């Protein structure tokens, strides 16, 4: 069997996973890029009778965190601050005041790829971002009227998507060769240096929806393949960028998004009311 990322022969690493209480699953690892894939994964049709699993009780809390992190990241990504991160941590209050005078609004188009119910898009628009939604498998509930139909997006988001992909290379081609974004911001939990045992919660066998897993080596392989620089904020939040980022500075701000978000959000003007007016107008057009 071949790796779904780099087409290298994979080896069996883990047996005995029981998906949806009755399907046997095995985990294979690629020796070249470290991608983990679950086989045979022949339960997916049943697993996706509902695209969002009933066990996903963290969906709102997760999106609250993501909207803060994305807001901070996009606002400070070009911020030129020639101060070592260690000094930023010491003088955090001063940094918040000083930087608030120099933050610039991010004005370019954003697409949430695999956007689920549209909750993140709605929340980003509530901040003031021109964000749009796209998802072939889930009904848009919260971002209706803002479906992405363009091919021109500076930034593509993809949160809690990569571990679901049955054909990841096809989707990466779609993103990086089709859209060619300058930024790809995404989440997936890295599994680390060793293949986790079958008790690892991120396998999520009770839902049957997580079938591919990545570590730092995997993400570097993908970034290199498509000509991007790779930066991780932590083990679950990652960035591919066309230009090299000041990773220490960005990591400092994003990891403190709760602290900086109220200040940074003031740079933006919410689209909540203007979107409401657009939707009212669309009813009568």
TrEMBL record:
The keyword GTP-binding does not apply. It comes from the Bacteria. One of its GO terms (molecular function) is methyltransferase activity. InterPro entries: SAM-dependent_MTases_sf (IPR029063). GO terms for biological process: methylation. Pfam families: Methyltransf_23 (PF13489). The keyword Methyltransferase applies. Keywords: Methyltransferase, Transferase. This is Methyltransferase domain protein. It comes from Leptospira vanthielii serovar Holland str. Waz Holland = ATCC 700522. The lineage of its organism: Bacteria, Pseudomonadati, Spirochaetota, Spirochaetia, Leptospirales.
């Amino acid at each position: 069997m071949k790796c779904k990322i780099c087409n290298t022969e994979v080896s069996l690493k883990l047996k005995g996973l029981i998906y949806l209480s009755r399907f046997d699953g095995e985990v294979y690892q690629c020796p070249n890029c470290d991608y983990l894939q679950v086989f045979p994964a022949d339960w997916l049709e049943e697993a996706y009778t509902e695209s969002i699993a009933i066990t996903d009780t963290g969906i709102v809390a997760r999106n609250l965190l993501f909207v803060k992190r994305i807001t901070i990241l996009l606002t400070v990504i070009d911020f030129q601050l020639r101060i070592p991160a260690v000094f930023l941590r010491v003088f955090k209050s001063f940094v918040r005041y000083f930087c608030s005078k120099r933050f610039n609004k991010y004005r370019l188009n954003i697409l949430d790829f695999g956007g689920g119910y549209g909750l993140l898009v709605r929340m980003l628009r509530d901040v003031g971002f021109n964000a749009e939604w796209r998802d072939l498998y889930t009904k848009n509930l919260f971002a209706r009227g803002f479906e992405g139909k363009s091919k021109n997006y500076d930034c593509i988001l993809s949160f809690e998507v990569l571990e679901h992909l049955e054909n990841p290379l096809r989707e990466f081609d779609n993103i990086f060769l089709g859209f060619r974004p300058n930024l790809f911001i995404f989440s997936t939990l890295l599994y680390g240096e060793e293949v986790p045992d079958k008790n690892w919660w991120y396998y999520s066998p009770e839902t049957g929806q997580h079938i591919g897993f990545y570590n730092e080596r995997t993400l570097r392989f993908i970034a290199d393949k498509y000509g991007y620089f790779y930066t991780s904020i932590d083990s679950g939040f990652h960035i591919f960028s066309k230009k090299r980022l000041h990773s220490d500075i960005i990591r400092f701000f994003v990891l403190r998004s709760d602290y900086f978000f109220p200040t940074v959000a003031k740079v933006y003007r919410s689209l909540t009311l203007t979107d409401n007016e657009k939707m009212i107008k669309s009813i009568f057009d």
